[in-house]
Design goal:
heterodimer; A: Helicase, Ruva Protein, domain 3; 6 helices; about 0% strand; flat; B: about 180 residues; alpha/beta; Glutaredoxin; 5 helices; about 40% helix; about 20% strand
């Protein structure tokens, strides 16, 4: 009986290890930098760069070899002391603004940044207009109500 | 009735946007190199590891640069057409053997024929990144000054060549 439980438990643990361990094994193991500040920058950078081959993943989560190549290049550039902006420039000149999950605000990408704001303003405008009209409608006026109903097609 | 005209009008305005959006392939990214100089490179030759090949070799002529690999199904698909193209003499074809291993790549050229003036051996994908390559096969058409006239993603065939490449080659040559 005792051995049975431990076998089940062992099986469960093995399954858990397999389930949660596999993704970790797919991506580069261990830390890239000993310096915690560099490591933090590295982790932030690879979260912000799109894997061009597997477009809805960033290069941190992807094990496509293009993603691992890009991680290697980013490690190299960090080790060479390049700034985040220089690294983003490197990627954008090669792959275009699409490579960045947060495209920088400039000419072409302005519409991306402003569209949500414009839509919000337009939506609020429509909402206010509808509310105003409803509020100006008579509430307890049966005649007006009848007229409204009658006026419908 | 007029109250319905506004949403219908808005929808009519949006319709072309949807149609264009549906027919476009989101995996095809515009190359930032289009109409700009292609990156320079120098790499060991695939067939002759001791010698170096690169962008200097095709300076001053029209060139087709094809990024290929033996693990790439689309490359197998387009190989026959590349052979025909190279034999026709329309344009010299240069290869960048991307993220591949040498014995496999040599075996491939041996079995299927070698359409390339040379194949540069980009084992670790550095030059691929410089060219903004994200999936083989990719094919770049360069003019004699090294400007990228066109980039094609995916297997090349006669129809695509006639439609996208030949006119550019013709008009650029006529302009010279």
């Amino acid at each position: 009986m005792l051995t049975e439980i431990s076998t089940t438990r062992r099986l469960l643990v093995s399954c858990a290890v397999l389930l949660f361990g596999l993704p970790a094994a797919a991506i580069d193991a261990g830390k890239a930098f000993d310096d915690p500040a560099l490591q933090a920058r590295y982790e932030k950078l690879i979260e912000e760069v799109r894997c061009l081959k597997c477009q809805n993943q960033n290069i941190r989560d992807s094990n496509a070899f293009l993603a691992s190549d890009l991680r290697r290049e980013i490690r190299r550039m960090l080790a060479e002391g390049m700034s985040d902006d220089e690294i983003f420039d490197f990627l954008v000149t090669r792959y275009g603004e699409f490579a960045l999950y947060r495209p920088r605000m400039q000419g072409k990408t302005l519409v991306l940044w402003l569209a949500p704001l414009l839509l919000l303003v337009a939506g609020t405008g429509v909402l206010v207009a509808i509310l105003r009209r409803r509020m100006s409608m008579p509430i307890d006026d049966d005649e007006a109500l009848d007229n409204t109903v009658a006026g419908r097609d | 009735m007029t109250r319905y005209l506004v949403p219908i009008g808005l929808f009519a305005l949006l319709l072309p946007v949807f149609i264009v959006g549906l027919t476009r392939d989101p995996s095809e990214l515009p190359s930032p190199f289009l109409n700009n100089p292609a990156p320079e490179f120098a790499l060991p030759s695939l067939t002759d590891p001791g010698s170096e090949v690169g962008s200097a070799d095709y300076a001053g002529e029209f060139a087709l640069v094809n990024v290929w690999a033996t693990w790439c199904v689309g490359c197998r698909e387009e190989h026959g057409f590349l052979m025909e193209l190279a034999q026709s003499g329309a344009i010299p074809v240069y290869g960048i053997n991307w993220r591949d291993n040498r014995p496999d790549a040599l075996n491939w050229l041996d079995r299927l024929g070698d359409p390339y003036v040379f194949s540069a051996f980009d084992a670790d994908g550095r030059v691929g990144i410089d060219w903004g390559v994200y999936g083989a096969p990719e094919t770049f058409l360069l003019d004699p000054s090294g400007i990228v006239l066109h980039k094609h993603l995916g297997p090349l065939d006669y129809q695509i060549w006639q439609r996208d490449f030949a006119p550019l080659l013709g008009s650029a040559e006529a302009a010279r």
